[in-house]
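Following up on my earlier message about magnesium ion. Here are the inputs again, as you asked, copied directly from the submission form:
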Amino acid sequence: MGIFQLFSKDKQETLDKGLERTKTSVFAKLSRAVAGKSKVDDEVLDNLEEVLVTSDVGIETTLRIIERIEKRAARDKYIGTAELNTILKEEIAALLSESNQETAMDFEAEIEHKPYVIMVVGVNGVGKTTTIGKLAYQFKKAGKTVYLGAADTFRAAAVEQLVIWGERVGVPVIKQQMGSDPASVAFDTLTSAKANNADVIIIDTAGRLHNKVNLMNELTKIKNVMQKVVPNAPHEVLLVLDGSTGQNAFEQARQFTKTTQVTALAITKLDGTAKGGVVIGISDQFHIPVRYIGLGERMEDLQLFDKDKFVETLFEQH
Amino acid sequence: MFENLSDRLERSFKILKGQGTITEINVAETLKEIRKALIDADVNYKVAKTFTDEVKKKALGQNVLTSLQPGQLMVKIVHDELAELMGGSSVDVNLKGSPAVILMSGLQGSGKTTFSGKLANLLKSKRGKNPLLVACDVYRPAAIEQLKIIGSQVNVPVYSEEGNLNAVQIAQNAVKFAKQNNHDLVIIDTAGRLAIDEQMMKEIANIKAAVNPQETLFVVDSMTGQDAVNTAKEFNDRLNFDGVILTKLDGDTRGGAALSIRSVVTKPIKFVGTGEKMDALDTFYPERMADRILGMGDIVSFVERAQEMYDEEESRRLSKKLAKNQFDFNDFLSQLQQIKKMGNLKDIASMIPGVGKALKDVDLDESVFKTTEAIIHSMTPFERERPDIMTGTRRQRIANGSGTSIQEVNRLLKQFDDMRKMMKMVSQNKVPGRKK
Ligand SMILES: Nc1nc2c(ncn2[C@@H]2O[C@H](COP(=O)(O)OP(=O)(O)OP(=O)(O)O)[C@@H](O)[C@H]2O)c(=O)[nH]1
Ligand SMILES: Nc1nc2c(ncn2[C@@H]2O[C@H](COP(=O)(O)OP(=O)(O)OP(=O)(O)O)[C@@H](O)[C@H]2O)c(=O)[nH]1
Ligand SMILES: [Mg+2]
Ligand SMILES: [Mg+2]
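Thanks, got it. Here's what our run produced:
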């Protein structure tokens, strides 16, 4: 039996219509539901559930948020359109801020440790190498000397890709041949950067699925080797998450945190229609701040994470 | 201990009575759980809702002949429906045409370039094709170099035009080149693109128009979340693609995107990617995917086993006897055997949601069956049919014959009697009161 028999014709049409991209903001929809009512009713909450779940926030976190809204509504008695708007943003942002107290590291800011070593990790194809190119661009623009290490020695042309980014941005890339030991590349990079008095070192690593134990252990080894050159390295372990990834991002965060003590998150590809809502729950549960977002494929397409703006875009439809 | 056994029997007699049907009320909780499981697995919110609503409609009124509870049967129905929905007729790639042209499409990083290499490798080694890989990603740093390395890994030549930024032209030239050089298959790798990137979507539509491929494939990351529906729909609207490739299934994602995509686009999933190496691809198995998405495999296999073992004829006969209070030791024995046939008792019991935990510390020893069976076997045929004629001498003889004690025989008889009363009530639709 095919889909057409399963979804009766009108059902299929509603589904299609529902998925159509509209310009109406979800707030408009929510506002209509709340207009003239003295409390947040089920219709509003249903709408809210839909908005959050379709932004990949996940059932559990969605229910938490709804609970918080309900509590607020009970306490504040009357919630008008404008208030609902504000309350929603506040409550969601609160989940993010609870783990996100530090202000995002400004590219201009003084470097605390010199050289400041950032190791970039994540599953395949999420945008690690591209994010590194963008970061290098930002740090360099802020007047810092940057070194890149091509420790993805596995994927076809991964080294060449990083080298091209290095040329684009105008920063040196330390590399070895494809197939060489990634830990040794990291070692070389730190040694060379240190000798040249670099401010920031960013190490690219091969994409790896978090359920592959051997590949995960390789990250530990890279970390350990780096500490032989720079005692506290890496100062930052940046986990890159693809903004279009669903609930599996939770497992990614869990496993990468377990092996490499992730200190910050970057969410990429938010220039698409995906919302990346899963980071709300992740940030809340693992107490890792979201630091950067990727908004395109050019070197300028990176921003420091702004949680108010992020929450706002959750409620915008394309 | 015997308590457990009679619980089991009580349950199985609920089945036997065949009076259970799927109603709104008795599956409401289960449906909620199923919908939650689907959303947790990244099935799109609306798709999950529509899917469970439609499946429920189809299931309402269905007789729960064999399942232990309507909810369990519901899980199984959903599972089968999922598998059916994701299964497709044609899964093969169309290789007609000289050369046959296959065009890759998809979001950034989904695995197009890697899959191009895998497919070239497969069709070369298994179908005797002479493929040509074409590098039409003129944007991503080192994209051409990546395809070249992959080509060399699988021993397939790569057509590229360094410096030419016109992907449409490159594709056209590549097809010409293939014709001149006896390539009967052309696989075109393209740049990753967002569905809302108008310019890039036009580009790939133009490539398609220019080379008129036999197969346009949509390559999608199996970890994709709610947005899968938007992307798949948009790419399909633009390209009317022929099939879907689901990559990175070697991870632990539940892969609900597969269902979401099938719900908005009636195109088969042709292959799955299961690793980074060139031989890491597989055909798509809808059953496995349904298991993976729903994640209630234990219930599904439990219902399946129950259905396999269930003898409808026998049940009808028994339920009649029950109603007339003619249930005897022969029937009891045959019930015991049915349960035993279903496999290890503890295994089976632990598959029932809620029971598993409760049973954890209970010593559910199969030897309880042995004693019970031994006692029944030591009865004469007459005694088995007439449980009420057990005199003291008969009991003693049975105890001796079965190597048990008279106390054990007495206990069985007492419990059998209780059970018969209880089952009679159940069969008359009276809810049995809690035993003291
Ligand atoms: N639209 C968009 N594309 C992005 C963004 N970040 C990265 N990409 C694209 O995503 C694809 C994969 O990016 P990479 O940087 O190669 O990803 P990676 O994590 O290094 O991949 P592996 O090393 O293979 O695991 C490329 O086509 C990038 O151009 C972003 O923020 N927006
Ligand atoms: N584990 C695993 N990794 C895969 C699979 N398919 C592709 N990859 C990896 O995913 C990453 C991205 O793959 P690519 O083939 O470069 O993806 P793409 O779609 O060509 O990317 P763009 O050209 O940037 O859009 C690479 O690290 C691949 O090795 C798969 O089935 N399993
Ligand atoms: Mg990379
Ligand atoms: Mg590619």
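One observation from looking it over: DSSP finds 20 helices and eight strands in chain B. Hope that helps, and feel free to reply on this thread.
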